[in-house]
Amino acid sequence: MTEIWFYHLQRQTLDQALPNLIEKALERGWRVAVQAVSEERLEALDQHLWTYSDASFLAHGRAGDGDGALQPVYLSTGVENPNRASVRFFIEGARVAFSLGDGAYERAIVVFDGGNEDELSAARGQWRELKERGFALTYWRQSEAGRWEKQG
């Protein structure tokens, strides 16, 4: 069964935290999918992943780029998984909408901004819904130093 983790951003923005989380997934040998709600967010993320660090970039693609199956990181507003990702990040309040019971993903990660009431509310709603469906959930939040700490 897919592990579902919730990452509560408190000390960093999504643009600061997400590239590091993606890098950790890639280090495990996993392909990654990132699902957002808006094309505007995907466009910004598309540009950001090429330039977020002077020393590095994250190779990635979107549906319009073609060759989705070859991408180590695939960006989308839909539920498709052309690169056969092992981990899927849900950002911007994107709903965990696929059938998690089929084991399509090793891990689903909901990343939400604790300072954004809409994202916070969406994350709480998804937590309740997924808990009721019997999924084991893990909650992570950022410490004062910005490190991720597993809660309860």
Descriptors for this entry?
single chain; about 150 residues; alpha/beta; Rossmann fold; 3 helices; 8 strands; globular
Notes on the protein architecture:
This protein has 152 residues and is α/β, with parallel strands linked by helices. It has one domain: Rossmann fold (3-Layer(aba) Sandwich). 28% of the residues lie in helices and 25% in strands. The chain has helices at 14-27, 39-51, 117-132; strands at residues 3-9, 32-35, 61-62, 73-76, 87-90, 107-113, 137-142, 148-151. It has an 8-stranded mixed sheet, with helices on both faces. The model has no long low-confidence stretch (mean pLDDT 92).
CATH architecture: 3-Layer(aba) Sandwich
Specify the number of helices. Answer: 3
Q: Provide the β-strand percentage band.
A: 25-35%
Report the C-alpha radius of gyration, rounded: 15 Å
- The N- and C-terminal alpha carbons lie at a distance of 21 Å
- Name the average pLDDT: 92
CATH topology: Rossmann fold
CATH class: Alpha Beta
Shape: globular
Q: How do the strands line up in the largest sheet? A: 3-4-2-5-6-1-7-8
Q: How many β-strand runs?
A: 8
Q: Which H/E pattern describes the elements?
A: EHEHEEEEHEE
Tell me the CATH superfamily: DNA polymerase III subunit chi
As a percent range, the share of helical residues equals 25-40%
